TrEMBL record:
Gene3D superfamilies: Enolpyruvate transferase domain, lambda repressor-like DNA-binding domains. Pathway: Cell wall biogenesis; peptidoglycan biosynthesis. It catalyses: phosphoenolpyruvate + UDP-N-acetyl-alpha-D-glucosamine = UDP-N-acetyl-3-O-(1-carboxyvinyl)-alpha-D-glucosamine + phosphate. GO terms for molecular function: DNA binding; UDP-N-acetylglucosamine 1-carboxyvinyltransferase activity. It comes from Nocardioides seonyuensis. This is UDP-N-acetylglucosamine 1-carboxyvinyltransferase. The keyword Cell wall biogenesis/degradation applies. PROSITE patterns: HTH_CROC1.
Length: 507
């Protein structure tokens, strides 16, 4: 019995850390004392079901759900990987296209969609609005049929709050309704992520949004139209997507300046073209969109492969000093990353280029060779595309940890992401946080197994998993929902390459 209480205490501690709360902060949310939380976490306290439910809701985590507790991974290392693995389509194009399907009154079929939790949350939201969605086969083809009228009053708030992508409903919805509400967007906990750029991009289409009581209250003034080019205040991916979607159903030509030309934006542009929207300037920072008054077509689109998953697999091969073949790598979105890796001494071969199913994106197969890496001469920092991808930066932390010498990583983008990289120290790395945006990494590292709770951010969580593959002994990575948010069957697929990763639950 006391063991049972201890296990529940551990679950609560993990969920609290995952939310980034101290014991005192959780106590405050529950109207109790820090010492009570301490007793609960140590398993020294009887808990009523009601208290468990309150803790669960304060931590946004179901503490006790029969057979459905959080999943953890047990990793036995060190591993050498071998064989071949195919890159899946991207999370970020997947979610953008799900939002964009709301522009179309006809049926959208998306091919080979990544079957990940972020997509599942958006599908739950779409279903709650009355959209019919259906997985068609084990190839992950997905059919989406919107209703004549969306049931915005019954939006699944719980699902919506767990993803940031719901913010991309603003662009399509402003054409469907004069006033509507959306719950606040979630996503990775990376510090404050402003939505103001979205507002200033959509204001020219008459959208006004007030954010109060946990919701965005949107109203649309149909008399307002973009009279001059829309200049994005940030070259963000989802803000560009929102502006594109708003422009798609605006008759006339809208010019969007300082647009992101990143991979998910390009996939959205190709999809819009299939819907009959004219988009010029794809791949550049000035997009010109000639919209149509209504869209009602049955359309089929295949988003491209995920450059971030490809980078994750490259990092897996590098830290485990393995030779593997990674197929369907969207090379045009990974060229800079590979150039830096080459400078660091990474050896690999690449095949001839071929096209993704969207007929546009250039793909290659890469075969990695075990390489002795050294630190790069200059610091590594991300930039909007064609710079080094912002979501790829964390993978350079674990790569730098196996390289000889000192590497400086500068994540100017996110307030809270670099700090999670210091979790690598639990496995023996030397990652020094210089300030909230910069880490200095000293290699090479002899990783050794440890227990780590997933940080509340997708990429840093995967980085820790990859270091565990290279760690001697057994490691445990707890509460892995955040990884499933962006990767399909990652552990199983790494196991097919020879890793030893077991998935388990506490209760
Ligand atoms: C669903 C989706 O597609 N998510 C991606 C998208 O999120 P998303 O488009 O939502 O990114 P954000 O709007 O949160 O931007 C990321 C951060 O960069 C800052 N910023 C961005 C652009 C800029 O020119 N200047 C600037 O300062 C923002 O203030 C923010 O702090 O883009 C991020 C940055 O590539 C990626 O990490 C996310 O994976
Ligand atoms: C930050 C990320 O995602 P999101 O925008 O969905 O939080 C990511 O993909 O690394």
């Amino acid at each position: 019995m006391s063991d049972y209480k201890g296990r529940i205490g551990n679950l609560i501690r993990d969920a609290r850390k995952h939310r980034g709360l101290t014991q005192s902060q959780l106590a405050e949310l529950l109207g109790t004392s820090q010492s009570a939380i301490n007793r609960i976490e140590k398993g020294h306290q009887n808990l009523s079901l009601e208290m468990l439910a309150r803790i669960g809701s304060a931590l946004d985590s179901e503490i006790v759900a029969l057979g459905a507790g959080p999943t953890h991974l047990r990793v036995n290392g060190p591993t050498t990987l071998s064989g071949s693995i195919e890159v899946k389509t991207s999370k970020n194009a997947g979610v953008a296209l799900l939002c964009a399907s709301l522009l179309n009154r006809g049926r959208t079929t998306l091919r080979k969609v990544a079957r990940i939790e972020e997509v599942n949350r958006l599908l739950e939201v779409l279903t709650s609005l009355g959209v019919q969605t259906r997985w068609l086969n084990d190839q992950n083809d997905l059919e989406i049929i919107p209703p004549a009228d969306l049931d915005l009053a019954h939006i699944n708030e719980e699902a919506a709050r767990r993803t940031r992508s719901v913010i991309m409903f603003l662009g399509p919805l402003l054409h469907r309704s004069d006033s509507f509400e959306l719950p606040y967007a979630g996503g990775c906990n990376l510090g404050t992520r402003t939505i103001e750029p979205h507002m200033s991009a959509l204001r020219p289409f008459g959208l006004e949004v007030k954010a109060t009581d946990g919701a965005y209250h949107a109203s649309v003034n149909r008399a307002v139209e973009p009279g001059r080019p829309i200049v994005l205040t940030e070259r963000g991916d989802s803000v560009t997507e929102n502006a594109l979607m708003a422009a798609a159903l605006h008759t006339g030509t809208t010019v969007i300046r300082n647009a992101s030309s990143n991979y998910m934006v390009q996939d959205l542009c190709f999809y819009l073209q299939k819907l009959g929207v004219r988009v010029d300037g794809i791949g550049t920072t000035t997009l010109s969109v000639t919209g149509v008054a209504s869209i009602d077509v049955d359309v089929d689109y295949a988003p491209s492969e995920d450059p971030i998953e490809a980078m994750s697999l490259l990092a897996a091969a590098i830290v485990t000093k393995s030779s593997i073949t990674i197929t369907r790598v969207p090379i045009e979105f990974l060229e800079l990353e590979l150039a830096i890796l080459e400078e660091m001494g990474f050896r690999y071969e690449r095949s001839e280029e071929y096209r993704a199913l969207n007929g546009e994106t250039r793909l290659v197969d890469l075969t990695t060779h075990p390489s002795e890496l050294h630190a790069p001469l200059d610091k590594i920092h991300p930039m909007p595309f064609p710079g080094l991808n912002i979501d790829n930066l964390p993978f350079f932390a674990v790569i730098a940890a196996v390289a000889e010498g000192q590497t400086l990583l500068h994540d100017w983008v996110y307030e809270n992401r670099a700090i999670y990289l210091t979790e690598l120290n639990k496995l023996g790395a030397q990652v020094k946080l210089l300030d909230p945006h910069r880490v200095m990494i000293e290699g090479p590292t002899r990783f050794s197994g440890a227990e780590v709770v997933c940080p509340p951010a997708l990429r840093p969580a995967v980085v820790i998993l990859l270091a565990m593959l290279a760690s001697k002994g057994t490691s445990v990575l707890r509460s892995t929902y955040v990884i499933h948010r962006g990767y399909e069957d990652l552990a199983e697929r790494l196991n097919q390459l020879g890793a030893s990763i077991e998935t388990f639950r506490d209760i």
